Amino acid sequence: MSIETLQFMQDEIRRLIGKAVCRLNTQGANISREAIISTLEDLINETDDTKKQREIQEAINMFITTNGKFN
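The structure corresponding to this sequence follows.
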C-alpha cells in the first residue's frame, strides 16, 4: 500500500469521526468516547453500501485502538 493510500485512509477515518462529533454537537449530546462510537455505529446502520460500512467499522476500530488520538 502506498503512503498516499494510507494517508487517504487516515483522512477518511478522521472525517467519519468528525461527522459523528458534529452530529452529537448538533443534538446537544454529551461528546464522550462511547457516544462517538455509538454514533458511528448508527452511521453503519444508515447505509446499505457495504464498502462504506467497512470504512465506518474501520474508523470505529481505529478510534478504539488509538483511544481517539491521531497524530
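Residues 3 and 46 are 31 Å apart (CA to CA).
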